[in-house]
Write a structure and sequence with these properties.
The complex is a heterotrimer of chains A (538), B (343) and C (297). Chain A is α+β, with helices and mostly antiparallel strands. Chain A contains 19 helices and 20 strands. In chain A, 34% of the residues lie in helices and 21% in strands. With 297 residues, chain C is mainly alpha-helical. The chains are: A alpha+beta (538), B mainly alpha (343), C mainly alpha (297). Chains in contact: A-B, A-C, B-C.
Chain lengths: 538, 343, 297
């Protein structure tokens, strides 16, 4: 006993020593100048060209890369970035970009750039997606969701280098959303020099996993599924960040993120829950931004029973959206009447979605020959996104709703986010709760990405719904610059969606974020991912 | 001692044999194709699969299939994770040390607190301290560990703000992975923030260790209590009493040593239980250990990972088991060789 | 057949009656036993006595705190969760899932374990030694890992986790039955019946089982507290009861996301688990105490 008490005492002293130990100034500066961002999921890739999920965009796009042009965070107008200016011919078929000359690529342990960014890099970045015989085209699977969904493959006729710092895009026809697409989060510029070096090293697949870009931060370390470590890019053309480190702490559990924020282990967290708790806390700020998004309940229209439009329509009558809005979104969103949020110019208030009516749902279900109901799978996305802060709860509500019309729902959840997306793209689901945050403010970004035939092939159309009439409508809308004409086409498209119900739009929501009060700067954007450029800590 | 060692070695071989048979048969039992479950190569082309089938001797009988599986295991090849496409061996090596750190520290803490308290209860048999300790022990091993973990985080991380709630160390510190045991790695590293990192890692360790150690500690309390009661009931204690030794002399010199030996015999069995608790705790505290990885793997239906995890974790437990047996034998001559006396 | 009492016979209470006599002595055990019975009643009558259905959503009453707090509503005595489901109803329904099923699980594994255990007690030599080592291996695998493997084979779901837990518990019963049977076989009264020409099965049935049953029951209480914790742990990890089921562990997991705004959704299921495990352990404790007292007499 005496012996153990003595050791006990020793241990306690040691413990106190360890815990209280002196704080040297160095350590202070490490935590004072570093930001830990608790993100909701692991990026699938470090190149947003190859992945369009919000998690990948958040982690990479604005941190590691720049685009030719970007959107102004306040009014969403197009502003210069890598291209200091650009010129569009009157017929809209030829666009010339004039590049800045002072843009340096990242210098890392695995790459030493010898030259500044020039037209070759721009050509390389676009040709990789555009030219199917390009050396790098098939690396990482050969899928470029944003590029292919926006039909840029058919739109772009050629890309030419005019001189070292001028690039010209020749289009097959005028397209009103072209500039918006080029400014989107996925249209990043990579380094051709790095790519050439990788070919020599025979390590081409590393281009998307050990990224080199021109953005404010450079890649330091990635521990798969656990964290990403970035360091500031000292030659960043907009000025070096004051931070010493930027760490993405991948914390998929909602409560885990909030706990870390409350315990001071994170400085900023994505998609916070328990908004009231954060607002009441003296050292924390809750912020939100109106975001261009839609949360939806999509059907796999290639599988029975959802290959039958009557069944899909029946379900759209059976969903109590108001209840979902109050429980899942805690009232912080608007009911989606269509695919497009009310703040978009393409929004048409005359089109309203199906009202909540069990009787109508049952009637349609009987017409379709399923009066006794059926059993279905509902895949609920495992992470929080602005458009769907809690898919599992939403799934539970839908489960209760559909039980009223005799449909039994199995909720499928628990897959890790990237696995989930892969399985959904492969069409393993019967129905799914998912959503979409726009890359750019043009309404086409909703229509083409979510429901066009070409995106059914790339996998971003998770309903696999392919309707010729719908495709024609959105094509026509792109071929004109006249907003009123486009609006008419989009209204027709929205009506068609309402008739055919490949998906049930549920809500358009704000995007939330919480941060400690000592973090300054604008992080959230209405369009696209977060941006740590210019963010400081004091 | 030689016979004792040989016997343990024998047992170890036998156990490993059973364990590998079990894990090999799992590849048949899991849903999906056996070869893919075994290798984890979900994206393999037909040609690659043919090569793999050849490697694992799929055409021959079950026995040679098993032996080729064993052969792969011996070379440290446990296939590839179906989710991350990394070799299972790498994944395990990255994570096992964290689990070793957590479980071993927790085991020591549980014994360190459990044994003295249990002895205390025995000394005050059927008096107030005894009843109090028994009550605490009862609640201690009845508490669901995931609930305890959540409450601990709420109280110590959020309300008091004393200790961090997740992970092994703050992500700001870059510590190179050498042994995988975080505290040792920190001491080996040449980071300018070494001392801070060490403090930080210790602070991260405290809560999970306490949560893991609580239930085993209460079991050790009860074991220690009954062992001590048994010892106090023996003739040699009575003889010592008759000789006029003081009570504290009897306890410290004679009773405690023998009681500790009795408890140590059962520590091995408790270790499997402790690892179970640690698996759940790892989930709650986002501890980057093998338990959390295994639970994640089942969400992802990563059968190759589950198979590899089973072997590694069970082997680890068994090795600890054997180490404890040796400690027991070293302390207790009776267990070592029959000629040292009769049991 | 009626038999006249000719002689003044001394009535010997059966072992179970003796056990009960010793068992009910300490008041705390009796309280525990009362709680245990209360839980059984709850589990059986769950559907009858709950005020609401466990899956009914009261969307006007989301996240209502328990009735004793200022914002509480007496019609939802223990408050509601994020879907407006009545916590009290869910907890009561959960009793029949977590607690009730744990009893079934233990009975099933007891039955299987006793059969295997007695058979193995009757075998000797290499077969017995193999089984012995095999059990050791199984016992050294953490129960949760074993359950996870079985769930991986069968797929997640409540029924499959029950099978998993049954299989996890069987080795304990095999172990204890075999040891107990061996011990009894060595005793003189068994030798006596054997000399009478009784077969091994008959000896097991009439001589040995009545004498080892209390040991088995005592082990069963231990197994049950483990079963409750395992069912809840698997439910908490999302491998057990599917989503709307009010299994306590799954309820707790659901509550975790609401921890900071509605802490009662975490406290209450946790307390329910704690309560039932403590009650079970008290019963087991009382049982072991009674056995010890009888042995000492």
């Amino acid at each position: 006993m005496a012996y153990s008490t003595l050791t006990n005492y020793k241990l306690l002293t040691l413990l106190i020593l360890v815990l209280s130990g002196c704080d040297s100034n160095e350590a202070l500066s490490l935590s004072k100048k570093s930001i830990i961002y608790c993100s909701e999921g692991a990026p699938e890739s470090f190149n947003p060209q190859t992945e369009s999920s919000g998690t990948t965009i958040d982690a990479t796009s604005n941190q590691l890369y720049n685009r030719l042009i970007e959107f102004d965070p306040t009014d969403n107008s197009i502003i210069p970035a890598i291209a200091k200016s650009w010129h569009v011919t009157r017929d809209g078929k030829m666009i010339t970009f004039y590049l800045r000359k002072d843009i340096q690529f990242h210098q890392t342990s695995y790459f030493n750039p010898t030259r500044a960014l020039n037209a070759d890099d721009v050509l390389f970045s676009f040709n990789r997606m555009f030219d199917s015989s390009h050396d790098y085209h098939l690396i990482s699977g050969g899928k470029y969701p944003f590029f292919q969904n926006a039909q840029l493959v058919n739109l772009i006729e050629s890309i030419e280098k005019i001189n070292e710092h001028t690039v010209r895009f020749q289009l097959t026809h005028s397209d009103s959303s072209f500039l918006a697409n080029i400014g989107g989060d996925s249209a990043v510029i990579l380094s051709k020099e790095y790519a050439d070096e990788l070919i020599e090293l025979n390590a081409m697949q590393e281009i998307d996993m050990l990224p080199i870009g021109t953005g404010p931060f450079k890649f330091k370390q990635y521990s798969s599924g656990a964290f990403i470590r970035y360091e500031p890019h000292s030659d960043y053309w907009r000025g070096k960040s004051e931070l010493k480190q930027l760490v993405f702490d991948i914390t998929p559990r909602d409560t885990g993120r909030l706990t870390k924020l409350l315990a001071g282990e994170c400085d900023v967290i994505a998609y916070p829950i328990a908004h009231k708790k954060i607002e009441q806390h003296p050292n924390l700020t809750l912020e939100s931004v109106t975001s261009f998004n839609v949360g939806y309940f999509g059907f796999n229209t290639s599988k029975p029973p959802f290959n039958n439009p009557l069944v899909r329509k029946a379900l759209s009558y059976a969903i109590n959206k108001q209840a979902i809005l109050e429980t899942v979104y805690t009232g912080q969103a608007e009911i989606a009447n269509g695919l497009i949020p009310t703040s978009s110019w393409a929004y048409d208030s005359t089109i309203t979605s199906q009202e909540y009516s069990i009787a109508k749902a049952q009637e349609l279900l009987a017409q379709a020959g399923y009066s006794n109901g059926f059993v279905m799978d509902l895949w609920a996305m495992p992470v929080q996104r602005a458009y769907n802060p809690d898919a599992v709860t939403m799934a539970k509500l839908i489960q209760a709703d559909l039980l009223k019309i005799g449909i039994e729902v199995n909720v499928v959840s628990g897959y890790e986010w990237s696995t989930f997306l892969r399985k959904i793209s492969d069409g393993e689901h019967q129905s799914v709760l998912l959503g979409w945050s726009a890359d750019h403010p043009d309404p086409d970004n909703f229509f083409s990405t979510l429901l066009s035939c070409s995106s059914a092939i790339t996998g971003s159309n998770r309903t696999f719904w392919c309707n010729k009439e719908f495709d024609q409508l959105i094509q026509k809308a792109l071929q004109t610059n006249n907003i009123n004409k486009r609006k008419v086409y989009y209204s027709k498209a929205l009506k068609l969606i309402n008739e055919e119900v490949p998906l049930i739009p549920i809500a358009h929501s704000k995007r939330y974020q919480a941060r400690a009060n000592n973090i300054n700067g604008t992080l959230l954007r209405a369009i696209g991912g977060i941006d740590f450029n210019g963010v400081t800590k004091n | 001692m030689l016979i004792f060692t040989l016997r343990r070695f024998n047992l170890f071989i036998f156990t490993m044999l059973l364990l590998t048979i079990l894990s090999f048969s799992l590849s048949f039992l899991f849903p999906g194709e056996q070869l893919i479950n075994l290798t984890g190569q979900i994206d393999a082309s037909p040609e690659q699969l043919a090569i793999l089938a050849d490697e694992y001797q799929q055409q021959s009988g079950l026995l040679s299939q098993y032996f080729s599986y064993l052969n792969h295991l011996f070379h440290g090849e446990m296939g590839y994770s179906m989710t991350s496409n990394l070799p299972i061996a790498t994944e395990v090596l990255n994570r096992l040390p964290a689990t070793i750190e957590l479980t071993c520290v927790a085991l020591l803490v549980a014994m360190f607190f459990g044994l003295p308290v249990g002895f205390c209860a025995a000394i005050y048999h059927r008096k107030l301290p005894d009843n109090l300790i028994l009550t605490i022990a009862m609640v201690g091993y009845s508490i669901p560990v995931f609930w305890l973990g959540l409450l601990a985080i709420l109280v110590f991380s959020i309300q008091l703000g004393w200790l961090p709630s997740a992970g092994q160390i703050s992500l700001l510190f870059e510590i190179e992975h050498v042994t995988g045991l975080q505290l040792i790695d920190i001491l080996l590293s040449d980071s300018p923030y070494k001392w801070q990192a060490f403090q930080d890692a210790t602070r991260h360790l405290i809560l999970p260790v306490i949560v893991v150690a609580l239930a085993p500690a209460t079991i050790f309390m009860r074991l220690a209590r009954s062992a001590m009661l048994e010892v106090l009931d023996t003739h040699y204690i009575k003889a010592a009493n008759a000789k006029g030794l003081t009570f504290s002399q009897i306890i410290y010199r004679h009773a405690m040593r023998n009681a500790v030996i009795k408890v140590i015999r059962d520590v091995g069995l408790q270790f499997a239980n402790l690892v179970t608790i640690a698996m759940v705790t790892e989930v709650i505290f986002s501890w980057p250990g093998i338990g959390r990885w295994l639970i994640e793997s089942i969400y992802q239906r990563d059968y190759t990972a589950i198979q590899g995890g089973l072997i590694v974790l069970s082997t680890f437990i068994f090795i600890v088991h054997i180490i404890i047996d040796f400690v027991y034998a070293a302390l207790n001559p009776l267990a070592r060789e029959p000629r040292n006396g009769k049991r | 057949m009626a038999r006249d009492k000719i002689y003044q016979e001394e009535e010997f209470p059966t072992p179970l009656m003796q056990l009960w006599h010793n068992f009910k002595q300490p008041p705390v055990v009796l309280i525990g036993f009362g709680c245990f019975l209360f839980l059984i009643v709850l589990a059986v009558l769950a559907n009858v006595i709950t005020p609401y259905s466990s899956v009914e959503n009261h969307l006007d009453h989301l996240l209502l705190p328990p009735a004793w707090s200022d914002d509480g509503d007496v019609s939802f005595l223990l408050g509601t969760d994020n879907l407006g489901r009545d916590m009290l109803s869910r907890l009561i329904q959960g009793t029949s899932l977590t607690f009730g099923l744990s009893i079934i699980v233990v009975i099933a594994s007891l039955a299987i374990g006793v059969v295997i255990g007695s058979l193995s007690a009757l075998t000797t030599g290499i077969k017995s030694s193999f089984l012995n080592h095999f059990l050791d291996v199984i016992l050294s695998i953490p129960s949760l890992l074993l359950a996870i493997i079985i769930v991986a084979i069968l797929g997640p779901g409540l029924e499959n986790t029950l099978w998993a837990i049954i299989m996890v518990l069987i080795p304990q019963f095999v172990h204890i039955t075999r040891n107990a049977v061996r011990e009894e076989f060595a005793k003189d009264y068994v030798l006596a019946s054997r000399l009478d020409g009784a077969s091994s099965i008959r000896i097991l049935r009439y001589s040995i089982f009545p004498n080892i049953i209390e040991k088995l029951i005592s082990q069963a209480t231990l197994a049950q507290s483990a079963a409750i914790l395992d069912i809840a742990a698997l439910g908490f990890l999302g491998l057990g009861a599917p989503i709307p089921m009010p299994e306590w562990g799954a309820m707790l997991a659901n509550g975790v996301d609401l921890f900071y705004i509605a802490p009662w959704t975490v406290y209450l299921p946790g307390l329910a688990i704690l309560f039932s495990v403590v009650a079970t352990n008290l019963v087991g404790e009382g049982m072991r105490h009674a056995l010890k007292v009888r042995k000492e007499n």
